[in-house]
Amino acid sequence: MIGYSVTKKNKRSNKEFGIEMKGKVSIIVPVYKAEAYLSRCLDSILNQTYTNIEVILINDGSPDKSGMICDEYAQKDSRIKVIHQENKGVSSARNAGLKIAGGEYIGFVDSDDFIAPEMYEQMVQSLKSDRDLIICGCHRCNSDGMKQIKKAKALTYYELQCPEEALPSVIYQQVTMAVWSKLFRRNRILSETGEVEIFFDESLNNHEDFIFICEYICRCKGRIYLLPERLYYYCDQKGSLSNSEKSFDKILESLSAILELQQKYDIDELKSTELFYVENIWKYWVVKVMQGQEYKKPEDFKEHEKIKDEIKKYVNVYNASKYVRKYKKVIVHMLLTHERILFFATRLAGKLYK
């Protein structure tokens, strides 16, 4: 685990690092039941080498001591703002932060994760005039902050034009579908009158990040840039947020919202969201079957037929796409025609994985 110490009263100067300060970064941190990890998160933010930041903490009705910790940190560092609200979910918390953010740039950090000291320095310095979105890599860690993969695959930098090249990269999941590894321009989120126009959909508890990112890219004219460094530390104690904990009806609800993007934005690249739709449905099936030890045959999985019916709606588009790899098409074909074979193969894979 990487350790940090709190800098009191914000005495650390940018000259100390010899860093060119550009615009202010508003870092939005939703907080809920995070008392065990919140100090680690906030220390990593406050000790950024890029110090022109404001940190917006939204205590989303935490029943533990998280709210008190937020207030204690706000007393130590004038860059921190705290909002206390009743529990409404992570999207509502992020939206509350967007409404009061005053920085030129917007970043997000989850309260049980932490970030490298140079993360925002590198991201801001990379945000040239023709770039609208900066993305960094991440390390997956356990709850103690220890890397799960000590020798992660090396990342390479790339640039993609928005939205023509950037949207397909997001839709086909070549880019992480999470807002916490990204730096956004605030003026792309605002209307001409200065009002926030892009919000997180508070009715969803799945894919809300993906929809927000797609909407943002649709409004961009520049490029997205991927840094070849892993600067974000994603800690795996979020089991409740995984697809395996959600009902299929909730998955369909969020995926339907994605299809609505096609109608909102008349952009050719969005017309392939059907591929994303199909892929997330069969992946949901795979995860549920792998983890559901109570399933002895396909019929035991009550949502099985409903999943097949949804896939059939777009299977021809999925199979005809040049972007979908062959093994994925084989999985879909097996699910629709030889589900028993796929079922027992998936169950076996789940046992071997454990």
Question: In terms of quaternary structure, what is this?
Answer: single chain
What proportion strand?
Answer: 15-25%
CA-atom Rg in angstroms: 21 Å
Taken from the alpha-carbon principal axes, the silhouette is globular
Residue share in helices? 25-40%
The CATH architecture of the largest domain can be given as Alpha-Beta Complex
Distance between the termini: 25 Å
Assigned CATH class of the largest domain: Alpha Beta
β-strand number? 9
- Helix segment count? 12
What class would the helix/strand composition place it in?
A: alpha/beta
Q: What is the typical, i.e. mean, pLDDT?
A: 86
Q: CATH topology of the largest domain, anyone?
A: Spore Coat Polysaccharide Biosynthesis Protein SpsA, Chain A
- Full CATH superfamily name of the largest domain: Spore Coat Polysaccharide Biosynthesis Protein SpsA, Chain A
Provide the succession of SSEs.
EHEHEHEEHEEHEHHEHHHHH
Characterize the main sheet.
Answer: 9 strands, mixed
Q: Domains counted in the coordinates: how many? A: 2
